[in-house]
Every structure is written in structure tokens, then in C-alpha cells.
Input
Amino acid sequence: MNNLEQKLKNPVWFSLQETHNKHLIEIEGVQFYNPQINNFGAFFDTNKTAKALNEYSKLTEHFFLVSENQTPEIDNDHILLERKIDGCQMVLDNFIDIESTEEIVLLTDKNIDEVYDLIWLVMPGFYQKRGFEMGKFFGIFKDNKLVAISGQRMQTDDFIEISSVVTHPNYTKRGFAKQLISYTTKEIIKENKLPILHTNKGNKAIPLYKKLGYKLTRDMNWWLYRRK
Output
């Protein structure tokens, strides 16, 4: 049986082994999400990644491999590395509760389009509409529209990742993100799981995460590839 520390070192892999197993596509010993849900993949053996990426690229043009410290091998005739995103993992160390001044609600299927539109407005790129199926999403509404959200992404029997924390540009600097992260953290704790999150190294939000009780634990890097 794998312990929590092993799972945290390869969160995509173990999410697909456990909570998100129904979204698993396995190719040549490399594990990927169904690209309609998410375009992340994970591995242990770098010797297997080149062939697996060639096959997965038939399903989606852009995709990631996520790794703490390994460099995947690729077939340069078919796959292009667009960039490596230097990221880090943070885990909850000592939860620091904050006062919530906003009504935070659990979002439902009727909010899928609003969630998708808001994420693409703030962070255009790779969020899939069916990413809503990965976990719970919470939101704040103002003027009858969704203006801030936080969501859950990778999950195992032991941890849940907080992700998709975005606020509409017209509603920033009101503490919405802070309240949403705190609220989502508490919801994860209620499930007796460890709240974690991932971000880019040097992200200006890291001090906020630390104020909420999170600590930096390890590198967690995203290798972004494109089919040639």
C-alpha cells in the first residue's frame, strides 16, 4: 500500500489510481487523464514516456506530464516541448481560519458554463469544461453573476488539491480568493483528507497561502507538450 508521502510525490499518478480512476487512460505504462476532463499525465519510468506521448497526442494537441524531478523522454520527430513550468507543491500544515464576509455556495451542473467562461477569462489555456467533474466547485456571486470560484482537482483517498482559484478582474482586491481558499480547505478537512495545492515558483499568491496555513514542500513541474 502506498503511503501519503509517496502519493504526494506523484499526485497525478495516484489520483488516477484512486479517486479519478474512471478518467484513466493508460498507454505503455504511462497514465493520462481522459483529455475531455484534463490533459495531465504522469509516469515513473522515463524510458516509457516517448512512445506513450506519441499515442496520447492522437487524442489531444496540447498536454502535460507532471513530475517532481524527472525529465521525460520525447520523440522529437512527433512531439514538441513548448515549455517547462517550474512549479511547487504546498500542503496544509496548520489551518488558520479566517472570517468570511461573503456567501459562498456549492456550484452545480447549471454553473458549468459560467465556471468555464470565468476560468478562460482569467487563465486562458487548458481548462476543459468537463474538468468540473473532477471535484467540488465553490463560488461567490455578485450582481447576479459568478465572479469568483475555487475548485477541487487531483484527488486520492488521502488528499484533495485546491485549484481553479480565479476572480473576475472587475471584482479583485475584495478578499474573495482568500475566503474561497479558506472555505474549500475546511470542506476538504471535513472529508478527513489533506488539502494541497500547486502553483508556480515565485507566484505572488504564495504568501497568502502561507497565511492560511500552507507550507512549501517540494517541486512539482509541468512539462507542456504539443503534437507536431
Observations:
- The CA atoms of residues 135 and 152 lie 5 Å apart.
